## 1
Amino acid sequence: MTRRLHIMPEAAPELAAGLREQGAELVGADEQPEGVIVTGMFKKLNLTEVLEANPQVRWVQLPSAGIELYSEILQRFPDLTWTSAKGAYAKPVGEHALALTLAALRGLKSRALATSWGTEGGISLNGLRCVVVGGGGVAAEIVRLYKAFDTHVTVVRRTSEPVEHADVTVAFEGLDQALQGAHVIALAAAATPTTRHLLNAERLGLLADGAVVANVGRGSLVDQAALAQALSSGTLRGAGLDVTEPEPLPETDPLWSLENCLITPHTADTTEMVVPLLHERILANHRRFSAGEPMLGLVDPAQGY
């Protein structure tokens, strides 16, 4: 069945060709689309206006894994089928989380800044106790990668439904117990009111001395003042952050000056990595939309992810 789709802001030629191959008709916002596909990263565009003018729309595809930018729009149109890119970027983001973890454990930022030979330092990931916070595709990929190092991995997520490869999976109520004595914590959860500053001073204090933090979720998950204090005091060995609050992180923020804190500018998944994966997700969901099958990356407006 032919579906009428409107793409915002515009379709890349290869995406347009792929959708047409599947039988889609690409139309303007004023031509009664049944589905709206947003390809502009971190942009609301005029999505609200398009949806208000098109009550026949049944499906909206968002381009990012985190959907907090669109939360108000989701609340206004909760009866639509909303899908995001959650899980689509799991491999590059999981890979980056592993890189940040290893860099923090091995003290690679300080060595990159060094101008002399220095002394030995760093510890191995092999055999460590790790906690991964999040229940999506990125968290699952981090678990898979960590397990290659014979680690013990506990996943903390909204429910205790087991995550593949994890040794233990617990609900958020078990977070404090999971953190007790852990050597590594990787954050890959969504930004919601309940996850704000999930990793605070008290919880940092539960970790083993010399633990490391890797955050590829959202900056709001971490109390950055508490993190800076723990890094400065040496309680934490190091941290690797791909996300901060705010973004960009001001040049005056104390985290920049810490030799044991490596910050990357939200580039765990660059445009070059993301575009083909997003197109793959869009094409897969268009096939499912046309066939009336369950869609990938379904968003629950009430939960916010």
## 2
Amino acid sequence: MTYQPDVPSRSDSAWIAMSAASQGPWAAALAGGAVAGGADLALHLLGGHLSVAGPLSFGLAVFFLIGAGGALLRRGQDRTRAWAQQHPWSYALVPAAGTAATVFASFLFLSGDGLFGSLWEGLSDGLGVLVLLGIIGYVARGVRPASRR
């Protein structure tokens, strides 16, 4: 018999997802996001476009992908990670919302896109993180399942 925690409401599942995501390799995620954002900024500068919002949003998306994806792929016994692997789309909503909010804010304050352009950038990056983490969750369930206590 497998363990299925009772999740009566959406807010409870968000807390479980945040608990599972907090176990990710966030130092490596910060380094990966900084490298990806820096490389994107260098490519923008080589192309003659001085833009900070685009490279920053790319770095933020990579940061959330490495951190939340790494939490799914870690070894060990944890009920929250087991729940996240059983519900990969519910788990992916939390990092995707974080990506959407931070990318929206970076485009709103650092670019001339305006409110709706910034909203579009935030939602599209959040959707990309959602889809990629959902796929990582399905793969992690088969490759490295979390054991339940």
## 3
Amino acid sequence: MSKFQKAMVWLGLTDAEDDDESYDDFENTGSRRARHYRPDSSASQAPQRVQVSQAPQELSREERDNIRHLVNERRIPTASSDYAGPDRHGSMDARPQEPRVGFVKPVPAEKPKLHLSQPLRFSDVQEIGDRFKERQLVLVDMAELPKDLSRRIIDFCAGSTYALEGRIEKLSEAVLLLSPANVELSPQDKDKLLERLRSRTDNQ
């Protein structure tokens, strides 16, 4: 039995019986040759079968070390051994990248337009309603109107702001401010509107 056959038997990859088949083949071949051979009358005894011990021979320590070395070289690498860590050539960074934070620049809201209305008759309220439906600030000056006409105009403005979910404010005794929904002026802006209205009235 060769060293390789001993190693196969020691690893459990084959049985000693498989190695004995070669001896059986040898005996079968010998038996076929015996048919053509005419033995002498004196040689009447049948050939005795040679018994081969099936117990494998003990391997030396050096042979076992060589076998382990060969097995380790032929061992299939596992999934964990295939990973070689980060790329040595630096083609990819294995560190997790931080998410990019985008900065959104706020767009300033467009200031609503301001329309000054100085009605002289009740039919002038049509212009007030049209401007307000266009989401414009409407400043109504009723300083030159009689009280009865002023009340009718105030009622119309109140109904318009209610229908369009706006707001009506009284800046003075004869001045109204109609603001569309989601539009609000600061007290300083309201004071500036009154100043502009007075300066315009004085220049007329």
## 4
Amino acid sequence: VLVTGGSGFIGSNLVELLLDLGYKVRVLDNLSTGYFHNIAHLVDHPRFEFQLGDILDLPAVEKAVDGVEYVYHLAAMSKVAPSMKDPKMAKYCLETNSLGTINVLNASRNTGGAVKKVVYAASSTYYGNGKTPMREDAAPDLLTPYSSSKYEGEIQMDIYDRIFGLPTVSIRFMMVFGPRQPTSGAYAIVTGVFVKKLQDDQPLPIEGDGSHFRDFVHVRDIGETLILA
């Protein structure tokens, strides 16, 4: 099994779950947003392998897919705000999330059928400010370069499945929480912030009037869903 982005919050939890189930797991990650300390405790595991590399580097991706049967594609440029403020970051976001995904698909397709399925971590930003309750078949409401680049990944997954016969599945994550979630900074959701506040014996702040709501899903549930996909 290959997990791209396997040193990140969700990826590292998926890797642990796969190892617990008896799989051999290889991680491909450039460590640009993930952290090696998330998987450092696994380096001596007999069924774990780490490969430092970028999904924009096709030879690195081809090396990573060699000998694997399933690919979990979680690697992404996931910084929404920078993609809106900086044209260079918007370009990098498109390259990583779209062209990088095409590299993963091409490398998987070129294994001659050895890769049985590619499972893609899509994004709930697909829905934008659409009507609630949200439906899987709702039209996209893409508000940022990040959301459009992640949706482009979904489109490529569908193309490679229908046109080239490479089985793919795309799963749109909502607000994921659990072990190794960010607890500070722009990308820390309320669960991570509250955990840190509780650890520091501080009050839990309520933003706005307290009437806002979000859909949350535990990272282990995400991992199990990815495996069942």
